[in-house]
Write a structure and sequence with these properties.
Blueprint: H1 2-11, H2 13-20, H3 25-35, H4 88-102, H5 107-115, E1 120-126, H6 134-142, E2 144-148, H7 153-156, H8 162-186, H9 198-221, E3 232-246, E4 273-288, E5 320-324, E6 340-346, H10 362-385, E7 398-405, E8 409-417, E9 433-442, E10 446-448, E11 451-453, H11 457-468, H12 492-501
Parallel strand pairs: 1-4, 2-9, 6-7
Antiparallel strand pairs: 1-5, 3-4, 4-6, 7-8, 8-9, 10-11
Organism: Lingula anatina (Brachiopod)
GO molecular function: structural constituent of ribosome
Subcellular location: Mitochondrion
Length: 505
């Protein structure tokens, strides 16, 4: 029955009738050809002469598009920007993550998105360490070119007049004598401090001495420099930052790289980079409402100078991994009016016991690496509070001043952060961050018989210059990746929430 239905569809009712007469298949095909001859279209016939042509038939022809053809856009192999050795598919993944981040209007929510991931394997990076060879290591992972023995030209253009210096110097000498007098008093047998060890007492004395010197200089200069009255000063401030550093990709098929080590823990397969998380507690932090001026232009040749290539496994210099969530803390609360780094002062005594070091010069190396790490971490965290990130690079440099000292010896640092793209290869992003460092200098030699001996006027003048640099208001948008109507939360409720969240209460 089914065969008859198919035959009726293609050959007509006559063929079905023949089928019903139980004719053979060959006879049926012959009868069908006789009753339904095939249509033959000759070469010279026109379309209207074809038997199946219909002048009334309508067809949906495509409409003309005009002179310009409309095609869907062709997707480029790589997204906008420079990607180096990152594969095209992975580059698009990173690019889309950056676009999704821009859809979040508030900084707090962006930080939550960046930091609310599952714990990742990072190299926990204390900024004060005793291992050798860490200066080159810190330079490489922070992409920093180091300029030793000098500060930026802006310090040379500032003059400390004799009137100001002669007014401040006796006050600083008095602070030094007071701290020394307290040490003598505390050391008397009949007035021991039972809850402090000698090391704790020395650390406390150094921290208080630094704070007193800062207060004396700042209050003495407020008459001539009104910007010092607007600075926000805080003590024992946390500074934390998270970043990725490229350059650790494998160079052999067996998964080993040039030192013979396997891929270290925390290796990012997408960016071929390692993850780092730094942490530090600063003694004194001063922040301003406006940023410090840039020390040099981003186009200066110094910003593309070479840096040490330290592409070895970080475990070779005593670094270790641990699971952690990314954290960004620049030393102030989100939404604070004074949100730009002005001056950070650190005392090494709480972090490193100099008496336990095998060589006296080791402290200079430790101070140098700490100055680089502290400055970089503070500015990196600050950049994220302004809306920048590893997906959205800086549009202008960020600068800060860092001092490391114990009340008698001081080291001065000036840092300029030019790029956040440490996770891209140096060949693709040749721009470097710059750190200027002055060698350790002694403010005085000793205190004997109630007199400060060997006082160094140049060290005090350098301290004063750090307070004479004025923040400057920029003519461009400082937060280009945030909405134009963005206002940072500064009310009391959110301030308390931040206190509880970060454990500052």
């Amino acid at each position: 029955m089914a065969a008859c239905m198919r035959l009726q569809q293609f050959a007509g009712k006559n063929a079905v009738q023949i089928c019903r007469r139980h004719l053979s298949g060959a006879k049926i095909r012959k009868k069908v050809r006789e009753r339904n001859p095939p249509t033959i279209i000759h070469k010279n016939t026109t379309m209207k002469e074809w038997p199946f042509y219909s002048a009334t038939a309508s067809f949906d022809y495509p409409k003309p598009q005009g002179d310009v053809a409309e095609y869907p856009p062709i997707k480029e192999r790589f997204p906008p920007g420079k990607w180096g050795c990152i594969p095209d598919r992975k580059a698009w993944v990173m690019y889309e993550k950056g676009k999704d981040l821009l859809d979040i209007p508030h900084v707090a929510e962006r930080l939550e998105e960046l930091c609310s991931k599952e714990q990742v394997i990072v190299y926990q990076l204390p900024l004060w360490q005793r291992e050798h060879g860490l200066v080159e290591f810190f330079q490489y992972i922070t992409k920093t070119h180091l300029v030793k023995g000098e500060l930026p030209d802006i310090y040379g253009s500032i003059e400390v007049d004799d009137e100001t210096f002669n007014f401040i110097k006796p006050l600083v000498l008095e602070v030094i004598l007071q701290e020394k007098a307290q040490v003598v008093q505390y050391g008397r047998p009949h007035q021991p401090i039972k809850h402090r060890t000698p090391l704790q007492e020395r650390i406390k004395r150094e921290e208080e001495s630094i704070r007193q010197i800062v207060n004396v200089i700042r209050t003495s200069l407020c008459r001539k420099k009104p910007h010092l009255m607007k600075l926000l000063q805080d003590k024992k401030v946390r500074i934390e930052a998270y970043w990725l550093r490229s350059g650790y990709e494998a160079i052999e098929d067996n998964g080993y790289f040039n030192t013979g080590f396997k891929h270290p823990k925390g290796f990012d397969q997408v960016t071929k980079a390692l993850k780092f998380q730094s942490s530090h507690t600063a003694n004194v932090v001063l922040t301003a409402e406006q940023p410090l001026p840039e020390f040099i232009s981003k186009e200066d040749p110094l910003c593309t100078e070479e840096i040490p290539q330290f592409r070895y496994n970080p475990m070779t210099v005593g670094q270790h991994t641990a699971p952690s969530k990314p954290r960004f803390v620049p030393g102030y609360h989100l939404g604070q009016a004074c949100e730009f780094a002005y001056l950070t002062i650190n005392t090494p005594g709480r972090e490193i016991d100099e008496a336990s070091l095998p060589h006296p010069d080791d402290m200079k190396t430790i101070t140098l690496q700490a100055g680089i790490g502290i400055s970089f971490s503070q500015l990196l965290a600050k950049a994220h509070y302004l809306g920048f990130s590893m997906y959205h690079n800086l549009t202008y440099p960020l600068t800060c001043q860092t001092i490391v000292g114990d009340g008698r010896r001081f080291s001065f640092f000036a840092y300029q952060l030019n790029t956040l793209e440490q996770w891209k290869s140096d060949e693709v992003i040749p721009q470097r961050n710059i750190c200027w460092a002055l060698d350790e200098l002694a403010l005085y030699d000793t205190v004997e018989d109630g007199e400060v001996k060997g006082f160094n006027d140049e060290v005090l003048k350098t301290l004063i210059k750090c307070f004479l640099i004025e923040p400057e208001e920029r003519e461009f948008n400082l937060r280009p990746y945030l909405p134009e109507d963005y206002e940072a939360p500064v009310n009391k409720k959110e301030y308390i929430a931040e206190e509880v969240k970060h454990g500052r209460n």
